[in-house]
Amino acid sequence: MLIDQYLSRSGIQKQDLPSDFSTLFAGYQSQLNNLAQASPENIKWQYQVPELGEGGSCSIFDQLAAEPYDLSVILGGKTAANVQMLGQLQSIVDFYQQQSASQWFGVYQKRQNQQGDTVLVKLAYFGAASRAEFPLTQEFAAMSNNSTVGMTGKARIINDVGVYLAAGGEYYTCDPKVQSEACLPLLADDGSVIGIIDSEAFSKNMFIEKELALLLSVATALAVILQS
């Protein structure tokens, strides 16, 4: 999907982009196109997740569940295709971590879990432990930007979480240090939502200028992988 189409479908306004967006975007795209795939050893097939509280929200901050989440179950095994996909995703996650000042970043794909529920499942990330699946339901969207973006295909960019919460915005809090969040849809060529990305920072006004251009470049690159 061309970037102009993505901006239109995701609801991101061109006036919110930096004046040199085209140059920045092209530069990041060039670097992303030349990334080497991550080795299988760098793929996280299992990862720690927080204990979940009432309603499926995070419980006490930094309190982890006894059992890690096993990604191979929802993906249908450690197949060659899955190894290739996760290796490509991890290489982009590593690139984003090197280029961005973000403290947390995750890539989610829309899938059905073992219970038959449609969810966003976290395939690759960096940062603190976080939940593995976000339900794609109206009930959960009432408290989660991830679920809202996964259902609507519209981006949510919050550069001051405190102000957003005070205005009554829905927000899923697992780390109280987060001050900015950008949640963008991953869109197939036909405009359907195939996943999301979520980036979080401990400072306000993070997702502007170069950071926003970088995030949009990563979103378009990841969408190509997830729909292939």
From TrEMBL:
Annotated InterPro entries: GAF (IPR003018), GAF-like_dom_sf (IPR029016)
Coiled coil regions, renumbered to chain: none
UniProt domain GAF: residue ranges: 89-225
Source superkingdom: Bacteria
Pfam families the record matches: GAF (PF01590)
Name of the protein in question: GAF domain-containing protein
Native source organism of the sequence: Undibacterium jejuense
